[in-house]
Design brief:
The protein is mainly α. It has one domain. Helices cover 68% and strands 0% of the residues.
């Protein structure tokens, strides 16, 4: 059983909304990094590190930011792939790529790019 035209339109809107959200988050993150110096990002009042642990904290913060950006970038790839699947083969959208069974509308509502 394929999704109705109304359901497909709804999922397309959801995918577009999620795509816009991911792009906004990613662009904001990149923009903030470009606008701040390392000192400003770390919250230090001076350019002189007062303790070696400060450098470790700054490194961890940078790694967490990079991990978040990577996760959002991967999510964006999945959203774009879902839009491609929706446009190219709407009759197969919402069908699990693993089992071949229909993905529940509840799951697609939460994660419209779900493949299974």
């Amino acid at each position: 059983m394929t999704l109705t035209k109304t359901q497909l339109q709804h999922l397309e809107r959801r995918l577009q909304e999620e795509r816009a959200r991911a792009l906004q988050t990613l662009n904001r993150s990149v923009s903030e990094e470009a606008d701040e110096t390392g000192q400003e990002r770390s919250g230090d009042l001076t350019a002189y590190p007062t303790h070696p642990a400060d450098l470790g904290t700054d490194t961890i913060d940078a790694e967490l930011d990079a991990a978040g950006e990577t996760r959002i970038s991967q999510e964006l790839v999945e959203i774009n792939a879902a839009l491609d699947r929706l446009y190219q083969h709407p009759e197969r959208f919402g069908i699990s790529e693993i089992t071949g069974k229909r993905i529940s509308m509840e799951r697609l509502e939460l994660i419209p790019w779900a493949r299974s």
